Automatic annotation (TrEMBL):
Lineage: Archaea, Methanobacteriati, Methanobacteriota, Stenosarchaea group, Halobacteria
Domain DUF7964 span(s) in chain numbering: 3-87
Protein's name in the database: DUF7964 domain-containing protein
Record-linked Pfam families: DUF7964
Database matches in InterPro entries: DUF7964
């Protein structure tokens, strides 16, 4: 099951976000925004970070994937994915 296909076709509520954090598939799942429901998420495993954004017309979309390794730490991947989400959101608002 892919990341996007495992998400409901709507923004996530706090209990759903907590459930994702308890899942074995991810080490960390956080919302970029502080308000609920979550419309942009950062997913992290040992080897990658992904940023996903929800759009009413398109549903969930992965906007950035960063592979982690010796040269790139998780915090750098989280920051890059968050920046990609903000850029994608700003681009969507200007259309």
């Amino acid at each position: 099951m892919g990341l996007i296909s495992s998400l409901p076709s709507r923004p996530l509520k706090a209990p759903e976000l907590s459930s994702l954090n308890r899942a074995d598939a991810f080490e960390l799942v956080v919302s970029v925004e502080s308000e609920e429901p979550a419309r942009s998420l950062l997913f992290a495993t040992e080897t990658w970070v992904k940023g996903a954004l929800f759009d009413e017309d398109e549903g969930w979309t992965v906007v950035e994937t960063v592979e982690l390794g010796d040269e790139l730490q998780r915090v750098d991947g989280l920051q890059a994915c968050e920046e990609a989400i903000v850029a994608a959101r700003d681009e969507g608002e200007s259309n």
